[in-house]
Design a protein that fits this description.
2 strands, 84 residues, two-stranded parallel sheet, mainly alpha
Length: 84
Protein backbone atom coordinates (compact mmCIF):
# COMPACT_ATOMS: atom_id res chain seq x y z
CA UNK A 1 0.00 0.00 0.00
CA UNK A 2 1.24 3.50 -0.81
CA UNK A 3 -0.03 6.50 1.10
CA UNK A 4 0.88 10.04 1.98
CA UNK A 5 2.81 10.54 5.22
CA UNK A 6 0.77 11.40 8.27
CA UNK A 7 1.27 14.97 9.39
CA UNK A 8 1.57 16.05 13.02
CA UNK A 9 2.21 12.53 14.23
CA UNK A 10 2.36 12.73 18.02
CA UNK A 11 5.16 11.08 19.92
CA UNK A 12 3.85 9.93 23.29
CA UNK A 13 6.16 8.49 25.93
CA UNK A 14 4.69 6.66 28.92
CA UNK A 15 7.07 7.52 31.75
CA UNK A 16 5.49 4.83 33.93
CA UNK A 17 6.58 2.06 31.56
CA UNK A 18 9.91 0.92 30.17
CA UNK A 19 10.10 3.98 27.91
CA UNK A 20 10.37 6.09 31.06
CA UNK A 21 13.74 4.59 31.96
CA UNK A 22 16.38 7.35 32.16
CA UNK A 23 18.64 5.70 29.60
CA UNK A 24 15.74 5.18 27.22
CA UNK A 25 14.75 8.85 27.57
CA UNK A 26 18.30 9.95 26.78
CA UNK A 27 18.33 7.71 23.70
CA UNK A 28 15.00 9.23 22.62
CA UNK A 29 16.42 12.71 23.23
CA UNK A 30 19.46 12.07 21.03
CA UNK A 31 17.35 10.61 18.24
CA UNK A 32 14.71 13.34 18.28
CA UNK A 33 17.33 16.07 18.57
CA UNK A 34 19.05 14.82 15.41
CA UNK A 35 15.69 14.64 13.63
CA UNK A 36 14.75 18.23 14.49
CA UNK A 37 18.18 19.56 13.60
CA UNK A 38 20.17 20.07 16.79
CA UNK A 39 23.93 20.22 16.26
CA UNK A 40 26.02 17.51 17.94
CA UNK A 41 27.48 19.98 20.46
CA UNK A 42 23.95 21.12 21.39
CA UNK A 43 22.94 17.49 21.90
CA UNK A 44 25.94 16.97 24.17
CA UNK A 45 25.01 20.00 26.27
CA UNK A 46 21.41 18.79 26.49
CA UNK A 47 22.49 15.33 27.70
CA UNK A 48 24.89 16.91 30.21
CA UNK A 49 22.01 19.00 31.56
CA UNK A 50 19.76 15.92 31.72
CA UNK A 51 22.26 13.96 33.83
CA UNK A 52 23.21 16.89 36.08
CA UNK A 53 20.50 16.08 38.60
CA UNK A 54 17.94 13.50 39.61
CA UNK A 55 15.30 11.74 37.52
CA UNK A 56 12.88 14.66 37.87
CA UNK A 57 15.55 16.98 36.45
CA UNK A 58 16.12 14.58 33.57
CA UNK A 59 12.41 14.48 32.71
CA UNK A 60 11.99 18.26 33.07
CA UNK A 61 15.01 18.90 30.86
CA UNK A 62 13.66 16.48 28.25
CA UNK A 63 10.32 18.28 28.36
CA UNK A 64 12.02 21.68 28.10
CA UNK A 65 13.83 20.68 24.91
CA UNK A 66 11.03 18.73 23.25
CA UNK A 67 7.82 20.44 24.32
CA UNK A 68 5.73 20.56 21.18
CA UNK A 69 7.39 17.45 19.74
CA UNK A 70 6.79 14.89 22.50
CA UNK A 71 4.03 14.31 25.02
CA UNK A 72 5.11 12.77 28.32
CA UNK A 73 2.48 10.85 30.24
CA UNK A 74 2.76 9.74 33.86
CA UNK A 75 0.82 9.07 37.01
CA UNK A 76 3.86 10.04 39.12
CA UNK A 77 2.61 12.83 41.43
CA UNK A 78 6.12 14.29 41.83
CA UNK A 79 6.43 14.86 38.09
CA UNK A 80 2.85 16.09 37.72
CA UNK A 81 3.17 18.43 40.69
CA UNK A 82 6.15 20.21 39.11
CA UNK A 83 4.75 20.36 35.58
CA UNK A 84 4.16 23.74 34.05
Amino acid sequence: MIRKPKKNKEIIIDLDGPDGNAFHLMAHAKSIAKTVGYASDEIGLMIDKMVSGDYTNLVKTFDEYFEGYVILETSNPDLLENSS
